[in-house]
Amino acid sequence: MKKEIFGKCIQIISENKCIYDILTSELRHYRDAEQRSIDCQIIFSGELSVSRYSVNPSSHKTFKKGFIADYGVYQVMCSKEDSLIKFEIKIDKVITFKNRVSNFLRTYDNNLYFDIIGQVLHELILVPYAHFIKDLAVVHASAFRIQNSTVLISGTGGVGKTSLELNFCNDLGASFLSDDICLLESSGKIKPNFSYPKIYGYNTFDLVIKKKLLKGRSFLDRLQWYYRYKLFGPNKVRRRVDPVEFYSSPVEYDNKLTHFFLLFKDNSVRTICIEKLSLNDAVNSNIEIMKSEYNIFYNHLAWHKYNCINSSFNEILDLDSVFENWRVALSNALKNVNIYRLRIPENIDHQVLVSDLQKKILNVIE
Hints:
Structural class: alpha+beta
């Protein structure tokens, strides 16, 4: 299977039919790319093996053409041969009775294996691959198109990005472009990211959204939702949803960004305030957010560099170069964009937050 993802041709291989069928479903909204030459190859395999390597620390192995990152349950090997980037992933057989019980108590899904494969594919492989792409910046943001505007909502985790996305896409008919991670070219065009959004309990204060989210799910699925919600709170229960189906959204490509909003919590304000944000502050804010959000992957890049220094290997990816590429790409992408910061009171009611943010954003883009 070859798909166009983030503007590149990615080949996905798995001899396991169950995994291959899951990948086919997970990636069905991306364009086919059967006639293109391969930029990246992703292989789901049973074992990862290399000959000579260094192990510093024990969760990381660096070898001549790449490294293996051990994430506990998942091990991901990333290598580079000429211009081809290659990922191989080993998923331990952890779908045991014990793990099913554990996951039921945490984030039960109708198809646990589907949930795991899809999330691993995007978060541990596709987003890391995007770091190799020149003139493309990874932005911690949701994005959608409404009327004649393409809007990007940035900020740290839990600040309201997905809730706004739900509001605009579900209630106002906006077209979904990305959730949580957005890929922005230096030209200002957004590459769609069809990673399934994770909808938390606090995103479902609108009963229509909650009903839509749980519709068609099994009794056990609904039971776990209510159990987690009541016992541990709305931030401890979530579901992944197909964005195209959930929002009834058309699949769109190459939309040029027009508006950038940074959501920022600030206990010095009593009501939501909107203000202009400088290009430099927008660029630097995104890089600092990404350093925090993807710190585990960046730790492996740092360990890769350390091991290369002491083993006479060459790095396949330098983090400083990645951030410099992002600075240039973001500076070019945002130079003709309307950039704003929305200061948000620290303890504002979530429903009030979404309603007020929607009004302020609409006032700007209309």
